[in-house]
Predict the 3D structure of the following.
Amino acid sequence: MIPAAAALLVACSPQVFTMNIDMRYPSASGVDLSGKTLSVVWLDDLSGRDSTFSPALAEAFSQTLEKDYFGGEKAIETYRLEKDFGGDYAVKDTLVNLVMATGDDVVFLFEAPDYGTPTLSSRSPVAGVGRDSSQVTQVTVPYTIRLYVYDSMGRDTVQVFKGSSDTRFKTFCSPDESDADVQWRIWSGLQQGGNRAGIAAAQKFLSTWKTEGYTFVYYESPDAWGQAAQAAYEYRWHEAMRIWMTLLDTKNLQKRSCAEYNIAQACFLLGDYDLAAKWLDRSDQDQPISLSPGLRKRIKARQTGTQPR
């Protein structure tokens, strides 16, 4: 049953029902990724130190965004790019070139990490294993990550994000190995640290959500009004729009305006804000309804990238 939010005075008067819908808003970073194609690029400084960290970082970052924006489906490609030590990856032209090369709307570029000096804990003996791996030590590797983001459909600028942390893991070693020997070979063990860093870095770009009320209009007759309202109440927006469009062939300006308003709101909920504005214009031209200013404000806020108050 469709919940009515207003009582009828006469049978031909419009009725309304309100739905509480969780709406997606831009991430805490301010970057709006909804409906856009994304690529992730990581720089390889050819030192060999981050041959496992950076690929794991990029892949974990991509997968975290895919879960939020694409239902977990593979939708974000990751790319390795050899670092040009004379290049400036914070300038717009560099990121624009990557947008053109990938063909995607938004590019995330991870700079090669800046690693601090690894530290080793006191070694502990391991019972029951051979001489070649008879000790274990915990390795701590500090690092700093820089991420450059360019949204070709948003602000015409490169946004720079920076974060520092460390990765810790245990490694086996021989009593004959010096700490320097152990530090040299630890770089192959950074995959788990890269994975955790990628997940952490993606948090700032995940959607934020806000529950909002959306009110639709319907009449008791003809039956198509109720059918469209039921489809809308079940989030079948395209079907609801198709039915509302069958109701436009009428000389009753109020009914036609209400159908056009409903279509405008469905377009808005589907993320097509320009089309929503056009349908709302038609509704206002026929006969403005009291709900129109509120929807117009929401459309304008989405078109300009701001949140309505």
